[in-house]
Design brief:
mainly alpha; Arc Repressor Mutant, subunit A; three-stranded antiparallel sheet; 7 helices; 3 strands
Length: 126
C-alpha cells in the first residue's frame, strides 16, 4: 500500500520570468562532483531501493548476524538471503567475517549506520 506522503498531489512552482543567476550557477558548477562519482552514488541508492535489502541492512544496523539468522528473521531461504548479501557486499554496504563454519555479516562502516538513521529520522518526522 503506497504511503500517502508520496502519492499526494504536489504543485511545482516555476519562476515567472527567465533570469539566470550566473554567480550561483558558477559556484555550484565548480563544486559539482564528477559524472562518474554521481553515477556511483546513483548505483548505491539503487541498492537501497529494494525492500528486502533495506530489511537486511536494518537487521545488521541492530546487530551482526549470520545468514541463517537473517533468513530466519526474514522467513526466507538462505540462498535468497545470500544473493541479497552479495549485492550489498558488492556495493560496499556490508562486510563479512568467518568464524568456524559460520559467516557473520555487519554493516561496512559508520556511514551506512548514518544513512539508515537519517532515512528513518526523515520518514518519522512527518
Amino acid at each position: 500500500m503506497p504511503n500517502s506522503q508520496y502519492t499526494e498531489k504536489i504543485e511545482i512552482e516555476c519562476c515567472q520570468e527567465h533570469i539566470v543567476h550566473d554567480d550561483k550557477v558558477c559556484a555550484v558548477r565548480n563544486r559539482m562532483p564528477k559524472d562518474r562519482d554521481l553515477e556511483m552514488l546513483s548505483e548505491t541508492f539503487k541498492v537501497f531501493a529494494d525492500k528486502t535489502r533495506i530489511r537486511i541492512l536494518y537487521i545488521l544496523h541492530m546487530q551482526e548476524m549470520c545468514v541463517c539468522d537473517i533468513a530466519q528473521l526474514l522467513q526466507m531461504n538462505q540462498p535468497a538471503v545470500s544473493h541479497q548479501l552479495k549485492v550489498l557486499k558488492q556495493a560496499k554496504l556490508v562486510q563479512s567475517r568467518r568464524e568456524g563454519k559460520s559467516v557473520f555479516y555487519s554493516l561496512d562502516d559508520s556511514h551506512v549506520h548514518e544513512i539508515l538513521n537519517m532515512g528513518m529520522e526523515h520518514i518519522l518526522e512527518r
